[in-house]
Every structure is written in structure tokens, then in C-alpha cells.
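Protein: EFCC1 protein
Species: Chroicocephalus maculipennis
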Amino acid sequence: ELQQKVEETELLKMELQMLETERVRLSLVEEKLMDVLQLLQQLRDLNISKRALGKILLSTLESCRDPQPGKAHLFEVLDTLYHELTACELLQSQPLEKAQSRQSLSNALVISC
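Structure follows.
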């Protein structure tokens, strides 16, 4: 009976460790998603064309077509989309003070979603 309790305890420890790993992974995905949403909000405010935004999205999906082994595909897509959006010329030409004021929108973005 004691051996059974020890085995159950070990299983629970392993399950807890897996849950913690998943929590961290989801936290990273959530952070990257918020970054992407913030960039999309900035581009919307700068009146990016639907065509330009579509090209960015298609470019992202094309580059993530074949998932890399050992890397979460969802995070890979979000990360690639984030980098594609930050490379957008509209954001590059945006004045620094506007970019900094947009940082305060991240909380409002969470609420509006």
C-alpha cells in the first residue's frame, strides 16, 4: 500500500510538472499574441490597406507552411507574423512618440477583445 502511494505521488508530480510546462507555453503564446494584436491595432490606426495586410499574412503563412520540429507551430506562426508586421514600412516610418503612446493601448486592447 505504501508503494502504491509512492507511485501515485510520483505520477502526480509528473502531471504537475507537465501542467506547469503547459502553463509557461501558454503564457508565451499569450504574450506573443498580445504583441501581434498591438501591432495590428497600430497598423489599423495608420490605415494600412487590406491588400498590404493580406500580403503580410500570406507571407507569414507561406513561411510557416512546414512546421519546424521541436517548435510549437502556433508560436512559430505568431512569432513570424510579429516579425513580418514589425518590418512593415508604415510602422518603420511612424514617429517614436506615437509608437510609445501606443504601448499604453495594450491594456485597452485586452479589454476590447
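Remarks: The radius of gyration is 20 Å.
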